[in-house]
Each structure stands twice: as C-alpha cells, then as structure tokens.
Amino acid sequence: MVDRPGALVIEDTGEVRRLLCEVLRMAGFDVTEAATGAEGLDLIAERHPDLVTLDLMLPDMDGIEVCRRLRGMTSAYVIMLSGRTEEADRLVGLEVGADDYMTKPFSPRELRARVAAMFRRPRRGDLRGSGDRPRILTSGDLVVDEESHEVRLAGRPVPLTRIEFDLLLLLASNPRRVWTRETLTRMVWHTDWPGNDHVIDVHVANLRRKLGDDARSGRWVRTVHGVGYRFGG
C-alpha cells in the first residue's frame, strides 16, 4: 500500500477548516488540522507533513510568524490563505517562505489545481534526463547536490525551500542560458499558475539573500534586464 502524502490545515475558522480538510482528503492527502499557530507548529514537528495550508490571521500569532518558524523545521509546500487582497500581504508571505498565496473566499477547484501543480513540479532528479545520474554541481565555493537536495557555500549548508532549491538547480544546470520568468514558471512549478512576475522575483530575491548574493553584481543569480535571469557563477 502506498502511503498517502500528509497535509496540515492551520485555520481557526471551523467552516473553512472543514472545507480545506475535505478538499485535501479528496485530493488524496492524509489530513491533520490545527486551530492555532502553536498547535500547528507542534504538529509539524510531530508529523512532518508534505503540505501546509496556513491562515494569515490566527488567534495566537499571525501566519507570517508561523511561516517564519516552520521554515526552520520543514521544507513542506506552504499555501498561505487570507481574506486580505493587498499585494503587499501576498509578497510578505512569499518572502518568509510560503510557496503560494490564495485569497478568501477561495475556489476549492483552484486550490486542488494549485496543489496538484506543486506536486507535479520536477523534483530533484526530475529536472534531469531519464538516463542521467544525479549531479553535484560546483561553481567556485558553491556546491549544489541534487541527490541529497543540499546546498553548501564555502562549506556551510544553505537552507533553501523546495522552490528555491529547484530554481538554483535549474539555473546552475544551464549556466549560459538566460531564462525568462515565464519559462522558469513552467520548468520549476510545472504549470503557469503563479501568473505574476512578482512571484518569481520574490523567490529569486529570497534565494539571493540566503546565498549572500548582491542583486547588482549577481555573483550567483544575475538579472538580464528585459528578459529574466541566468546563473552568474
């Protein structure tokens, strides 16, 4: 019997929480639920889910703080949910490690589509050819290990989210190629769902920050103005 992927719903509104649980169970997940941020963090440490849906407004702490803390515990996919429609809220969520942001009320069909898109994304070896071996990519003092899903810079581990790792792996695998934002969306998310250049830009900015990179000089990730990005190592 194949184990079902695990999902954790962190949502204080009972009606919304039940709907999220139902949608994710129908999508094939083993679902656990929490009504507070603290409870959700405890369940993440205990159950190590593959997916977390996270309400921005929780009774004990806001979703931004929960997301910041959980990123020190897990590389699970995170979808942040909020009744706020301002772009700034969405970008802050992405900056602290969320993979996607949806506003309430949300469409169950769209939620399922976005979750399915994330789990269809090329993972580790899926970005290489079917007959190729996993790679260890080295550029200067930067090492990207495809098999272990680890990145080291000057011998020190660099903790990346799944999206950040796949972005770096794709760019480093093709150092001479310039990637448009649209192509990066298709290759890394395996879909067109982000639908906004800011999503790619925020994830690239997070990747640069963790690598100690400078957007102007672009030691590792260089901006090609008017086009997109390329690996700069």
From TrEMBL:
One short Pfam name that applies is: Trans_reg_C
Which SUPFAM superfamilies does the protein's record reference?
Answer: CheY-like
Q: Which sections of the sequence are annotated for DNA binding?
A: 134-233
Q: Which residues carry this modification: 4-aspartylphosphate?
A: D55
Q: Which GO terms describe its molecular function?
A: phosphorelay response regulator activity; transcription cis-regulatory region binding
Which is a Gene Ontology cellular component entry for this protein? protein-DNA complex
**The Response regulatory domain, residue ranges:** 6-119
PROSITE patterns this protein is in?
A: OMPR_PHOB (PS51755), RESPONSE_REGULATORY (PS50110)
Q: Which UniProt keywords apply?
A: DNA-binding, Phosphoprotein, Transcription, Transcription regulation, Two-component regulatory system
Q: An example of a Gene Ontology BP annotation on this entry?
A: regulation of DNA-templated transcription
Keyword field contains Phosphoprotein: yes
Segments forming domain OmpR/PhoB-type: 134-233
Q: Which protein, by its recorded name, is this?
A: DNA-binding response OmpR family regulator
